[in-house]
Amino acid sequence: SVHPVSYVSLLEPVKESSIPNRHNLPPPPVLVEEQEEWEVAQSLDSKLRRGKLWYLVEWKGFSEDPERTTWESASNLTSSLDLVKDFHSLYPDKPGPNTSRV
């Protein structure tokens, strides 16, 4: 049997097809705790809405399509906490988990 391991040095980013009107398909969802989830590429913004914290999320594999960003409740991003921390270190003045919810 083949062991599905590859050297990181052999990996390279997917390139857009040079054939007109042909686009690469986005990646399939990943399984997290037996549920399918799309991978978050990065958080772009945050806001408080009705006392809840929300993040504007760019999804991995969809970065070429800005219409595919979505506002997600912070409670939906529990498997992306490292990306949320990265966002708040870049934008400490944006609403975050420690922001008072009025």
TrEMBL record:
<keyword id="KW-0539">Nucleus</keyword>
<dbReference type="GO" id="GO:0005634">
    <property type="term" value="C:nucleus"/>
</dbReference>
<dbReference type="InterPro" id="IPR023780">
    <property type="entry name" value="Chromo_domain"/>
</dbReference>
<dbReference type="InterPro" id="IPR000953">
    <property type="entry name" value="Chromo/chromo_shadow_dom"/>
</dbReference>
<dbReference type="GO" id="GO:0006338">
    <property type="term" value="P:chromatin remodeling"/>
</dbReference>
<dbReference type="Pfam" id="PF00385">
    <property type="entry name" value="Chromo"/>
</dbReference>
<dbReference type="InterPro" id="IPR016197">
    <property type="entry name" value="Chromo-like_dom_sf"/>
</dbReference>
<dbReference type="InterPro" id="IPR051219">
    <property type="entry name" value="Heterochromatin_chromo-domain"/>
</dbReference>
<protein>
    <recommendedName>
        <fullName>Chromo domain-containing protein</fullName>
    </recommendedName>
</protein>
<feature type="domain" description="Chromo">
    <location>
        <begin position="38"/>
        <end position="99"/>
    </location>
</feature>
